[in-house]
Design brief:
- It is built from 6 helices and 8 strands.
- A hairpin with a 2-residue loop joins strand 6 and strand 7.
- The strands form 2 sheets. Strands 2, 3, 5, 6, 7 and 8 form a 6-stranded antiparallel sheet that branches.
- The chain has a single domain, classed as Roll (Thiol Ester Dehydrase, Chain A), CATH 3.10.129.
- The longest helix is centred in the N-terminal third of the chain and has 11 residues.
- Helix content is 24%, strand content 39%.
Length: 158
């Protein structure tokens, strides 16, 4: 079984600095290979066992020439990738507040490597804390079109 990734965030800031970070480019995460094992585990967890994801032999004859990751599997990587890029100290609570916009722009073939690019688009003060909107792009190594483009919302409470 694949070992979990253990990474430290590349940028850690305090709450006051967070309030000034609109427009900040957070860079890119390390690459992560999408294995058939990961795809199969996601299929089991979500009961989405469509052949295009879990049957490599049949998928070779399908529209992409190989099995592909579920779009929601690729999207779910936003959370561990986010933890690799950024964190805020001096807060009591950190909340994944949701998504404003998500597009699955290109399929991720099993065996491909993906990574996330992040930019803090907006910082808004909310009662007891701050909300940020992150422009997140999950790209596929060697491909022009990204796999996922999303606007991710996170809240940090003091």
């Amino acid at each position: 079984m694949t070992q979990p990734r253990v990474v430290e965030p590349r940028l850690v800031v305090d709450f006051d600095r967070l309030l000034t970070m609109a427009g900040a480019d957070l860079g890119a995460t390390d690459w992560l290979e999408i294995s058939q094992e990961r795809v199969n585990l996601f299929a089991d967890a979500t009961d989405d066992r469509q052949w295009i994801h879990i049957d490599p032999e049949r998928a070779k004859e399908g529209p992409f020439g190989a099995p592909i990751a579920h779009g929601f599997l690729t999207l779910s990587l936003l959370i561990p990738f986010w933890g690799e890029l950024f964190d805020v100290e001096g807060v009591t609570t950190k909340v994944n507040y949701g998504l404003d916009r998500v597009r699955f722009t290109s399929p991720v073939k099993v065996g491909s490597r993906v990574r996330m690019l992040g930019q803090i688009a907006e910082v808004t003060e909310v009662k007891g804390g701050a909300q940020i909107k992150v422009n997140a792009t999950i790209e596929i190594e060697g491909q022009e079109r990204p796999a996922v483009v999303a606007e991710f919302l996170a809240r940090f409470y003091k």
